[in-house]
Specification:
Blueprint (H helix, E strand, L loop, with lengths): L2 E6 L5 E5 L19 E3 L22 H13 L12
Antiparallel strand pairs: 1-2, 1-3
Length: 87
């Protein structure tokens, strides 16, 4: 459930409310002696939090794909890194 910021149009009071997305917007200022209407402010919101491991495309590959990739690496021709160096 997200936090929403509201501001009173009359007194300028800004406050935050933790409510469901499906809950109706609040309409009245909670301040004593103020009966002003409030508006919901646009906010940046909270960032997405990823928990656990595996957020790369290759982390979700099937076992058969992984085996095929390792076979390709093993069968690739190996090059000599010292080739072409002059002494």
């Amino acid at each position: 459930m997200p936090n929403y910021d509201y501001q009173c149009k009359e007194c300028g009071h800004i406050f935050e409310v933790f409510q469901k997305m499906s809950d109706p917007k609040l309409e009245d200022c909670p301040q004593e002696n103020c009966s002003g209407k409030i508006k919901r402010l646009l906010g940046t919101g909270a960032g997405v939090i990823f928990k656990g491991s595996g957020f790369y495309q290759t982390d979700y590959r099937s076992e058969s794909y992984k085996k095929g990739q390792s076979k390709e690496k093993d069968s690739a021709p190996k090059t000599d890194s010292n080739k072409g160096s002059s002494d």
